[in-house]
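Target chain:
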Amino acid sequence: MGETKTFTDKLPKGDIDAFKVFFENFYPTLCLFANRYLNDEEASLDMVQDAFIFLWSKEIDFPSQDSAKSYLYKYVKNRSLNYLRDKKLRDRLKIEIMASETYFRDNIIEEETYHIIHRAIYLLPPQSQRVILLSMDGLKNNDIAEQLGISVNTVKTIKMRAFRTMRNNLDRQTFTLFMLCWGNSI
């Protein structure tokens, strides 16, 4: 008669079949356990999968399945609490950043600058507006020419005149910012 290997004999030795049986029997229960903490099914599944991967990679010698289960429960509990602390910390930091005067000021500056640039664009003749806006959307001169039914050289001329007009209508810093943000696409 063949000798039956115990859980302790199989898992540390890398017996995939024994580990697979243990995994299949305990994975759903551990996922439910993790979800009690996380209230996020996807995060719970990932957390439990990580726990089993960690258990497999460590090849810890457990005296019984119950001690392995106990180990995994504690592992998942601690990882879940760390996850929640990290998430709460990230959320709290995000809220703190968003509540800061600097964030508020930077967003106002960004929105106002965007508004000033677009106002300067809308002061251009209609065809120049279309060319500049299409350029800002990432279209190349060939694509703009094709879309508007004009030659590539006409597109280049329109851009050159539009830039000159915008340079005159915008202060130096705003025009420089415009060119930095969209210069590569234009």
About this structure: The radius of gyration is 31 Å. DSSP finds nine helices and no strands in the chain.
